[in-house]
Amino acid sequence: MNDLVSRKLIEQVLAVAEAAGEAIKGVYHRKAPVAVETKADDSPVTEADHAAHHVILEQLARLTPDIPIFSEESEAIPFAERRQWQRYWLVDPLDGTKEFINGTGEFTVNIALIADHEPVLGVVTVPLKDQAYVGGEGVGAFKVNQGQWQAISVRAVPERNLVVVGSRRHGAEKLNALLAKLAAEGYSTDMTSMGSSLKFCLIAEGKADLYPRLAPTSEWDTAAAQAVLMQAGGRVVNTNFEPLTYNREDNVLNPEFYALGDQQVDWAGLLKS
């Protein structure tokens, strides 16, 4: 068990994420149009992203002053510096900016603690629903609904019937090919599309079984929800079935990956080409 992770720390980080969510809601519910900028990678960013970023940076720095913070909205931090970090906070202040802009409500605040390249604590809040998903090594995984904590875990897959979650916007062609492969193996699939890291969380709470991500993501998109899913009994692997890890190279893009629930399923045999 990581010596820093505790129920108390998860509660403290949850409070930070909730404060960031309040800043986001202040922009979301405002009647005036939201200004949208385009970053160098062509992804959108809004004042809500920046507001949440500043709340998180200020409060995390006060909570754990000795642990560095790497946020999607941070200035670029050279890998030569990052590679020295044994543990650090990895933050997406507003995951699902396109969902925020389009008014779907499917956006989250993601805060993860990375230790030795693995996410050991994760907090994912859903600002518009007063909900959160949290997990920590040695503590477990929980859904927090209006302040009430309930332990969660992945479900046992019903007989050859998978609930698959996927991105609404990315990787449709590869996903459709995978669904056809599952059908050829005798599995029926119910498909649900949604934005942000909520896809991991559905698996963690036993409402879905598989999230194939066959399009680009960045490390801050996945780390917090991966921590929750791992503590709920699932795992996240690349397409070679190696664990998805963090801060190993200059590029912060993840490989294609699978988020998996029930570990009694032979996922490798089912999904490998």
Distinctive features:
globular, 273 residues, single chain, alpha+beta, 3-stranded antiparallel sheet, 2 domains, Fructose-1,6-Bisphosphatase, Chain A, domain 1, 7-stranded mixed sheet, D-Maltodextrin-Binding Protein, domain 2
Low-pLDDT ranges = none
Our estimate of the beta-strand percent is: 25-35%
The structural domain count equals 2
What is the CATH architecture term of the largest domain? 2-Layer Sandwich
Q: Total number of helical segments?
A: 8
Could you explain how this protein is built, in words?
The chain has 2 domains: 7-151, Fructose-1,6-Bisphosphatase, subunit A, domain 1 (Fructose-1,6-Bisphosphatase, Chain A, domain 1, 2-Layer Sandwich); 161-271, D-Maltodextrin-Binding Protein, domain 2, CATH 3.40.190. The chain is 32% helix and 28% strand. It is built from 8 helices and 14 strands. It has helices at 7-28, 47-63, 79-82, 97-102, 172-184, 198-204, 219-231, 267-271, and strands spanning 36-38, 44-46, 69-71, 87-95, 108-115, 118-126, 131-136, 140-145, 148-151, 161-167, 188-194, 210-213, 235-238, 257-260. It is globular. The chain starts with 6 loop residues before the first helix and ends with a helix.
